[in-house]
Write the structure tokens for this entry.
Amino acid sequence: MRVNLPGGPRDVKAVWWEAGEVRMIDQRALPERFEILPCRSVEDVARAIESMAVRGAPAIGVTAAYGVALAGETGAEAAIGRLGRTRPTGRDLFHALDWMAARARSGGDLVEAAKAYAAAGEETCRLIGMAGEPLLPEGCRVLTHCNAGALATGDHGTATAPMRRAHELGRRLFVWVSETRPRLQGARLTAWELAQEGIDHAILADGACGVLFARKQVDLVLVGADRITASGDFANKVGTYEKAVLAREHGVPFYVAAPLSTFDLATERGEAIPIEERSEEEVTEVGGVAVANPGSRAFNPAFDVTPARLVTAFVTEKGIMRPEQVRSLRR
Ligand code: MRU
């Protein structure tokens, strides 16, 4: 992605390999500061994932692949174990670790394997953009949630890839960005990415989405996914499910953009997806400042599950697929 920095524009990925270390944009600092976080050990990489310096299912996968490369052939098995315990919900992490385990077993160069994994993911997102762009007609108003952009994938994004492509083609579009409490990935990261691209957008409080639908100000919903099961149920950032319910109530199409690496065909239904629960402080504090009643408990599931019946279609690198077609990917 091209970012506009004080020293001029720079092409950068969410995460990359340089000078024998894993480097990433520290997403905790955005949009206030553009900082690069270097990771020199597997533990550094695991903590970067856990603390959400890097986040978004495909970007976590790429980061973990580089983490295994840092460990080298002798440390690969232990690295895979440690990295596999960082964040449980996203499928891509395990896809990436399986990829690296296979390369380690065959004695391949792990740095080259991780770079190839990252490059394949970027190309996949570019293809998702091509497949999804026709869903965005001239003048459409799209609602998205969380950040399924270049920061979450390495480059291009999943949900944002069709938006970028439509914008490149000169089509007019407007993006509603729900803020995404508690960590504000929408307000901080998606809004930052759209601003870098010059795509017209506005941020709204999560609770304001119903007003948008009731006023007929949304033409389609386009979100990413962390894990999609064989039945087409899928997990994504908490708050996605309620948008799908609103979309159905108001007759608005609801699309999910994701690479095939996010599909977990061994899991049949959404109830079986492990849902990460994060700290209570993420809810009771904003930016490290307490905002809630002192002593009150908090509930903080990082993801929710949307049933397949609420999904209009999935947008993948292979094209557009209805939920009932997901199972056929097993072939
Ligand atoms: O907790 P996060 O920020 O890692 O959650 C990210 C999301 O839910 C994204 O929508 C999803 O990973 C798709 S990213 C292309």
Notes: The CA atoms of residues 86 and 161 lie 27 Å apart. The two ends are 34 Å apart (CA to CA). The pocket of MRU is lined by residues 55-58, 90, 146, 148, 152-153, 158, 185, 224-226, 236-237, 302 (CB under 6 Å). The first helix runs from residue 42 to 50.
